Amino acid sequence: MQLDLIKSLFLAYRESHLNHRYITNAHMAPLLDQLKKTIPVEVIGTSVLNNPIYGLQIGTGPKRILMWSQMHGNESTTTKAIFDLLNTLLSDEAAVAPILNGCTLYIIPILNPDGAQAYTRVNANEVDLNRDAQALTQPESKVLRAIFKSFKPHYCYNLHGQRTIFSAGATNKSATVSFLSPAQDAACTITPNRKVAMEVIAVMNAALQQIIPQQVGVYDDAFNLNCVGDTFQSENVPTILFEAGHFNNDYARDITREYIYTSYLVSLNYIALNEVTGAHYVPYLEIPENEKLFLDLIIRNVSKKQGSGEDEVAIGILYQERLVDGRIEFVPIVDKIGDLNGFYAHREIDAKGQEVYNEQGEPLKVNNENVCVIMNNEKISLLPK
Fold first, then answer.
1. What ranges in 152-239 are assigned the alpha helix state H?
2. How many angstroms separate the first and last alpha carbons of the chain?
């Protein structure tokens, strides 16, 4: 499928009712009501707080693909892209017919509705569902496991979002999209099963390199059987971790959603039209591994009076995401002060040797919250632009 076609499909079928970072069952409910008129939508279980967990099925093909999003409640970009995808698949576009004829998708749009509502990673019992694959202590974990057993997928798409700190390798390129073919044993053996997932990821990477060059990474494949991806991979179902990351000035993640959408269509089309054997897995190994080299903002060349003797001092800021009145706000927190020459930033401010103070006229300190700073008697906002 050509990238210019995918772009046009995204623009035509992007779900306009889902935007920014806060996506919950309440946002999704009217969309599901519409989908029920066309495809099966069911409640497959309930959360700790008795909120419904929905599942839906689309396509009639023999290759079964299980997709679940918002296992971590505050990772919503892949959910937005799911509804963009559903709108596309339910259109009369001939380009998506091979996917519908070749695949059957079972999708859980929000696995952790309580975490989505509270905008937290964990569920209402403060359990990370992605560390509960073996113990299955939580109702949400049991729901996913039950669908896995009944649907018997040939592929699993484990859909997540990642922080702004990740670089695609040791570079100044943000990891806008990341992937992983999880390990299925402690030795991280490149098994035939993993090769299949690697081949699909390599195809997605080849497409993304044309639109976000050098902004794709992979995660360390250290084995943890408590993780869902590792568990499903260990049961010989090729599993792919998707991670939606940061694109320049896209703190709403409404640009990144297009790259996730692109990844969905490219991979599903490839699976539908090919017998994926894993023979073409090697390009996966060339994708750089993510490193944590980014801060949201760095103020460089700050007067050394505010440091600890270095000739140049820099102040590194990370944004903390907070749910305020149904919307996510980004709060600047001082993360590091010192020599930050090994770090990159999504935005930089040159202090030009000036001292930098908070609004109370005090030097900045690590862990302090600062919406703005005073520099050369000028107030400068630290909020995302």
1. 192-208, 228-234
2. 35
Under 8 Å between Cβ of 182 and 229: yes
Would you say how long the chain is, in residues?
Answer: 385
Three-class SS of residue 241? strand
Fold annotation for 294-381:
Urease, subunit C; domain 1 (2.30.40)
Residue type, 247: F
Exposed / middle / buried, residue 33 (Cβ in 10 Å: 0-12, 13-18, 19+): exposed
- Section 298-315 average pLDDT: 77
pLDDT tens digits, residue range 229-276? 999 999 999 999 999 999 999 999 999 999 999 999 999 999 999 999
* CA–CA separation, 230 and 167 (whole Å): 23
> pLDDT for 144-167, tens place per residue?
999 999 999 999 999 999 999 999
- CATH topology assigned to domain 3-292: Aminopeptidase (3.40.630)
**Domains of the chain: which residue ranges?**
3-292, 294-381
